[in-house]
# Entry
Amino acid sequence: MHTITLIGAGNVGYHLGHRLVEIGCTVPQVFSRRMEKARELATLLGAAPVNRLDGILPEADLYILAVADGAIGHVAQELSRILPAEKAVVHCSGATPSTVLAPFFPRHGVFYPLQTFSRSREPDFSRIPICVYSPEAGLREALLELGRLAGAMAYEADDAQREALHVAAVFANNFSNYLFHVAHEILAQEKLPFSLLQPLILETALKVQEHPPREMQTGPARRGDRATIERHLEYLQQYPKLAAIYEMLSKAIQEE
# Structure
C-alpha cells in the first residue's frame, strides 16, 4: 500500500493525506469535484489534482474514499467504470457499512480514523485510533499495517462493531460539544467568560482516561440533591428546551 489515491479533499482527506505522505506513502492524485480544493491539497502533497472521476488513473495500490457518507456508493459506482475490478477501494466512514462498496469492488473495506477533524487544528495521529475492516484477509492485514504506520492504535472492527462505535462517538463527542455550547451561551447571557469552565472540562476529560466514567460521575443528580436540581430548573424556566434536557439527563443519571 505504498501508492494511495485520495478521493476527497475535505477535512478527513486533508489530514489523512498529510499523514500518508509523512509515513512515506506516495499520493499520485487528489480528487475533488471542486478543482480549487483538489489543487490546494494536491499541491501540499506533491500530487496531481483531479476534478473528474474519469481522470483517476488505475496505477495506485489503494483508493481511499474520504467523501460524505451519502456519496460513497455513487462515487464507488462511478469508479467501477474506470478502475479494474481487482483494485482495493476503502472508505473512511464510521457509520456506513463496508458492503456499500461490495457491488463494485470485491477488494473493499474501511479505513476509519476515529477523531473529529478541523482544518485549523493539527491532529496527533499517534493518539488517533484507526479502525479497519475488509472481508478479504489479505486486504484486512494490509490495512491494519497501514493503520499501524499512520497511528499508534490500529483496530479491526467489523461493520456492526463500527456502527456501535460511531453511536458511542456521537454521545462522547458531538453531544458533549453541544452541551459545551449550551454552557457557553448561558455564561454569555450572564456576561461570564467560558474560560471559567475550561479547567473543569479538562479535569473531567482527564479523569476518564484512567477510570470508568460511571465511577467519576459527580453533581446534584448523582448525589440525589433534589433541592439543587429544583433551583436549576427554576433558573432554566427562561430556556424551556434546556430545562427539558437538564431534567432528562438528571433522571438518566439518577437511574444508573
